């Protein structure tokens, strides 16, 4: 027998060693909480039984999906990420909600648990709605008008990142401080289901905010602490049968949907599958393999950068669809402490960060921008205040006198955000700062950087996807002084400019029109002239499903991304 | 001489030990020359180290392995030379938008799709010799060499730390016995009770967040000293316990009694009488520890609890390359090969060293495995 050449032996052993080490990561596991086989005998391990429907798909079956990381919270009042909202969209319905549709139609506000859209009186300061009658939670308990009030109060009790949306309710600000006595500005009548909300001042975005997950009614006995591991009873077409933070969660049809809630909430889709099983699968390449083989039917995150082009070329139009988003990717800089409290330093960073380079880091999945508002958002007017100029950046750092100042750069380990952080650290070092990189698990990244007691919160990566199609959504939660919270903070740059805060407040009171859009564009420019962030792009995402899922009927909502209720098995 | 009450049962010498208590090992001595009874070559004379060296010289595979290891070390030490004079870039310098001129051809280091350039060997004068490392376009060869420095630094320095701690604990525990032995042994047992990777991982994750603060000393979370100290610590019991066993046996020997009778102090007995007799064991453990340390570093770095990005080590390079395993498998295979060659060379050399310092241990090994030749047949 011919001997194996030594170099081949070494290469083979190296490959074994490399793969062996790689196997140490949890991400490489293809096993999850759900078995890949099913009794239905359907292709790819997903049960696709049941009757045919008009859309050409089948009703029933078990949809298997994967997330790369567990959402920040699986709790409607606290979650403030696209991951959480996509996951909870079919479970918790607010009084108002967004239509389950794509593009502009998906931005339309429709009645949810409320009978109809609110009646606005008192100069825009009073909102009156009526809860539909006979609604039930998934545990059989009736849904009460007081549950909405408790949901708003629970936002404050849990220091939710969404609580600033509701501080204009009479008494809410006081309640936020004392956490006692309830919010007097919300009055409910359990007999008639009437809900009256009094605001301290008009708020043009309030209908949008009533349609957010934060104020979806929940039973009043729900503890005022994170319930991610203890699913709260559902009001939507599905309920969570289990939720294991870090591992995954599962849904089943809400037994009270078909006979009670669903009959009234006809604009909210009931969903096609009987069960949904989502597992956390760290390895995005494995996710792609599993969708290709049919082990998984859907993945939340886009294919990893390594596989993106291949998946796009192979499956675009059949299983893969690129979806635009209204989002801004940016590096936040802590405006309250050295060295980023110095405007020259922040300008230097803006000059040094090159969106074109980051477009490649994101393998073409972002389009370079340098402003707060993304394209597609009312008020967007293209700005280019800081064309890439490394020399100028270095000069500004020299002028600012902070050369060699140590800073910590924060990012998460999800690809390519980790590479974006590495790129950013290199840029900061190049212009004369001493940057150290801190990479966190994406499961708790925003929780950590949103906690002001975390040391060395200097600068780092973040992104923002619209909560609703209103430019205030990019200013209120991210830049207004009142949105700086001790925990669950979203104003990572801790920007607190009094003059601009007032402008945000003023615009928030008005209904959005051409004049307001113009003023939002000016606000965008004003913040960028202060270089409060270093924005670098707006993201495109993608929908990737298995061969046996109907891509044509799958809905991508601009706020909630994939509508899980729209996914159905092909005939 | 230790008190009578402390003369407890001895532990069997561990297989990799030098068997210093075995007469005729060729090494056991308090300085006197001995006959190399089982040298197998019929020659006599020379000090124990000279005899060991003669044995090692005859082990060509071990010497070849040593040469490979030294070559790897030299290459890694010359990383700045390659970086500054050949590749003209640093290990963390990104080249995302740069173009490479090769003859009349212009290549993008990172394509708009995010795919990085592959190995160029010497086509671009040594730049991107092994290609670029993904979307950031860092020079893979430069990172490999610098990564090797990190991996070797951790492997060797952690082995030194382990050795120092293990020798101190082994000597104190074995010589004093009694309460001292109980306390040290139980502490070692506690550390031993945890799986090495799990313990190191837990410590790595904790220290990777806030760094290490001991009084006025603050070790940053990104410092190489964090994984070095962790690895040095977690392997200590694996060396300290066998050393303790040897000390328990040695302290009963006549030369220790003689030293006590001559009025030698504890320090002298520990470091002048006992320590030299442990040297062969220590040396063998030291080399094998380097290999184990490098492997553990790779695992920790792969899992994010070792060397912190953007600094490179072979473990972090495998971790980073794993993200591009599908399109650029070389990014994982190259650092994997580097680890393999280094660990293999150190292990083979360590085995050769053990055979040279204590050939009887090999006989014991084979006897246990049932492959040893009949006693006496090995010796001429």
How does this model look, in words?
The complex is a heterodimer of chains A (571) and B (380). Chain A has 571 residues and is an alpha+beta fold. Chain A has 16 helices and 22 strands. Chain A is globular. Mean pLDDT of chain A is 90; it is low at 1-10 and 16-54. The two termini of chain B are 38 Å apart. Chain B is mainly alpha-helical. Mean pLDDT of chain B is 84; it is low at 1-42 and 372-380. Chain B has a two-stranded antiparallel sheet. Chain B has 13 helices and four strands. Chain B is elongated. The chains are: A alpha+beta (571), B mainly alpha (380). At the A-B interface, helix 1, helix 8, helix 10, helix 12 and strand 17 of A face helix 10, helix 11 and helix 12 of B.
Average pLDDT rating of chain A: 90
Radius of gyration of chain A: 24 Å
**Number of contiguous helices of chain B:** 13
Coarse shape of chain B:
elongated
Helix/sheet category of chain A: alpha+beta
Reading the helices and strands of chain B in chain order gives HHHEEHHHEEHHHHHHH
Largest interface by residue count? A-B, 43 and 47 residues
Describe what is shown at a glance.
The complex is a heterodimer of chains A (571) and B (380). Chain A has helices at residues 6-22, 82-88, 145-157, 172-178, 206-210, 257-264, 284-293, 305-315, 343-352, 355-361, 390-400, 417-431, 445-449, 472-479, 498-509, 514-529, and strands spanning 57-58, 62-67, 96-98, 109-111, 119-121, 126-130, 186-189, 194-198, 238-244, 248-253, 275-280, 298-299, 320-324, 327-333, 366-367, 406-412, 434-440, 459-465, 533-545, 556-557, 561-562, 569-570.
Short key terms for the protein model shown above:
heterodimer; A: 571 residues; alpha+beta; twelve-stranded mixed beta sheet; 22 strands; 19% strand; disordered N terminus; B: 380 residues; mainly alpha; two-stranded antiparallel ribbon
